[in-house]
Amino acid sequence: MVMKEEMLMEEKLVISELEQGKELANRLFNNLKNPSSSNESNKSLISGILHSYENAIFMLNLDKKTLDRNHERTDQSNKKRRLSKKKKTDKIKICVATEQEGTSLDDGYCWRKYGQKDIHGSKNPRGYYRCTHRFTQNCLAVKQVQKSDTNPLCYEVKYLESHTCNITPLTNKYSAFMSKEERNKGAKVDATKQPKDTIKHMEAEEMMLSLEDLDTKKAIFRTFSFSNSETENILFEWNDPIENLSPTTSDSGITYELLSEFVSVDDSCFSSLENIIDLKS
DNA sequence: GGTATTTGACCAGG
DNA sequence: CCTGGTCAAATACC
């Protein structure tokens, strides 16, 4: 059965994640026996171990939900399968972003809020935004932003339709996390000339998820963990799967600082993602 | 005064 | 009928 094969695949991923954590723990153990080992490298190892655990737990939770749903579906085999065509689904992209105090989740485009709704089962309302240039340039880009129930710094951003407007974003991915004032200043001078220091200290990250492929998503998590274990500054390469969404998507070589908070992104951040994955299956 | 946000009403799909 | 998405009048902000 396909389901069984899938399950084995998921298990392998989790096991591999745990093995990686074990390997890092061993290295830490050896380091601790050696008094000359650097404190920094130990810290890095601990961080890597934590990431491995978090990734494994995340994957387990994800799998459990998927399996639960598969189960439900087979139970209801007599009932007509729900046709999942959520509107515009083929262009839905999800981005999970964390927000630091006083920063904005602006992605560089101009959005105009046109609605807000309380969502059944969610503590936080969902905001509805459309491109400011909807009427002037007939740009149909739309996004929905909802704060995570469990992690107030975590936002689930759902993009529907991509920008067709010709407006070049004033900001880039880095400035996306500046305060509005900082952004305005930067934009007036030259948005492309932001000091590298600013970039280095930008303490926020997004995770773009291609909904095409669940395994890809998992691979992303694995990459995070791996990178973290190998580098002190926890850098990772951003292979942005979302074209035309954010200003710097073409700069594939850029590295972003990854915060440890990333691993605290919980399942609720992916509730919508889960739904879409479900639809796909 | 122009532009953005808020919020209740409305609508469509299930 | 319930829920999520959009509209549009009222309001806030600059």
Automatic annotation (TrEMBL):
<keyword id="KW-0539">Nucleus</keyword>
<keyword id="KW-0805">Transcription regulation</keyword>
<dbReference type="GO" id="GO:0000976">
    <property type="term" value="F:transcription cis-regulatory region binding"/>
</dbReference>
<protein>
    <recommendedName>
        <fullName>WRKY domain-containing protein</fullName>
    </recommendedName>
</protein>
<dbReference type="InterPro" id="IPR003657">
    <property type="entry name" value="WRKY_dom"/>
</dbReference>
<keyword id="KW-0238">DNA-binding</keyword>
<dbReference type="InterPro" id="IPR036576">
    <property type="entry name" value="WRKY_dom_sf"/>
</dbReference>
<keyword id="KW-0804">Transcription</keyword>
<dbReference type="GO" id="GO:0005634">
    <property type="term" value="C:nucleus"/>
</dbReference>
<feature type="domain" description="WRKY">
    <location>
        <begin position="100"/>
        <end position="168"/>
    </location>
</feature>
<dbReference type="Pfam" id="PF03106">
    <property type="entry name" value="WRKY"/>
</dbReference>
<dbReference type="GO" id="GO:0003700">
    <property type="term" value="F:DNA-binding transcription factor activity"/>
</dbReference>
<dbReference type="InterPro" id="IPR044810">
    <property type="entry name" value="WRKY_plant"/>
</dbReference>
